[in-house]
């Protein structure tokens, strides 16, 4: 069992599903975000309000930690200055604070949007070059390269989880891109518990029949997704409009992020049900 684990972005929808499982992997879980309160705490969990853009604050939060699970960031496309502070400077602060405190590993919530302009038909693997579809995706590319540099130069391990559609299945696209909450938990647990990872990238996606990518080369993490969106296919496809092969939002793995203007919300083009786990 890990002595001390830090979770950033604990107030977010995905963070809400990770808090309880992470308390089972550590003697102490320190959850952090910029909100004043995240509700009732689990046994072994404490909460610290801290801003990712404040290096001193992050250095203090990570003091004595063995690992950090970094989910804190703007989770959508936004104006570049906003992305810069939260996602880019925030990522640097986490890695630098990890280095200063001797933290062994950063488990990072990267995103499909780091490679979002690749076509679905290409069935890319983990060796596909960065091809971001937004400032948001660009920030994920930065953090992946940052993690590689901190591993090469300073020995800080990292696992970069390119998370796909971790939400309820409501569209034809999500039949291929779904990451169930249970598989999210399995992925994070694997990334935390793997013996050695160096600097690794893995796609955060369930075992979907229609998956647009393959995870070959990530077996050493030990991630074994068990859920499959095909169970929803009959209902979703019966209600869906006809496919449009000229629409980049349907042809690229980044979905609507492939067609939005830079700085404009991509999440606004999706139907995401806020089913955050309540404490």
From TrEMBL:
GO terms for molecular function: dTDP-glucose 4,6-dehydratase activity; oxidoreductase activity. Its EC number is 4.2.1.46. It comes from the Bacteria. Residues 6-165 form the NAD-dependent epimerase/dehydratase domain. Keywords: Lyase, NAD, Oxidoreductase. It is an enzyme of class 4 (lyase). PANTHER family: 4-EPIMERASE, PUTATIVE (AFU_ORTHOLOGUE AFUA_7G00360)-RELATED, NUCLEOSIDE-DIPHOSPHATE-SUGAR EPIMERASE. Belongs to the NAD(P)-dependent epimerase/dehydratase family. This is dTDP-glucose 4,6-dehydratase. The gene is rmlB.
